[in-house]
Amino acid sequence: MIQDTPSDSASIAALMLKTASQHPWGDDVWTFSGVVPGLPQSAISEIEAQGELFIWTDLALKLHILHCDSYYHNLGSAQPQIYLVCHPDDEAQLKPLLITVDYDEAASYMETGEAVFNAALPVELCKWLEAFVLAHYKPEKMIKRRRKQWHDAESK
């Protein structure tokens, strides 16, 4: 469970919805519905009525001090996101590889061809992530660059 102290990991469950494709040659459609904590039981029941529901429990959401800049930007966005990276197994079922709140990390998996899904970051996890960022994030100091006076040196 999520603690009040800015810990660096949390155990969560991811909910994936698998529905049949509307296209005759299409594969199944997978949708990342959200995570627990965050989704109430009523929302889970509604999702389950739409297709086959997969619940992957005990996924470790780990935070790293070096990625605080990315976490800060995620929290500052209009809708903070959580990302689930999956890989198909031999039976074409998806298996979770990683769950993260770092867009840069998720994007690196997208570039290698892994399936990356996103969902809204629940308020409970936003508060936990915010506590971690406040405890560890030190923004880089802005340094104003000065232009070289190259034209003045030539005229002298």
List the helices and strands and how they pair.
Elements: E1 9-19, E2 29-36, H1 41-48, E3 52-62, H2 68-76, E4 81-88, E5 94-100, H3 103-111, E6 115-120, H4 123-136, H5 150-155
Antiparallel strand pairs: 1-2, 1-3, 4-5, 4-6
Helix pairs in contact: 2-4
Structure description:
By secondary structure, the chain is of the alpha+beta class. It has helices at residues 41-48, 68-76, 103-111, 123-136, 150-155, and strands spanning 9-19, 29-36, 52-62, 81-88, 94-100, 115-120. Strands 2-1-3 form a three-stranded antiparallel β-sheet. A three-stranded antiparallel β-sheet has the order 5-4-6, covered by helices on one side. Strand 4 (81-88) and strand 5 (94-100) form a beta hairpin. The protein is globular. The protein starts with 8 loop residues before the first strand and ends with a helix. The model has no long low-confidence stretch (mean pLDDT 88).
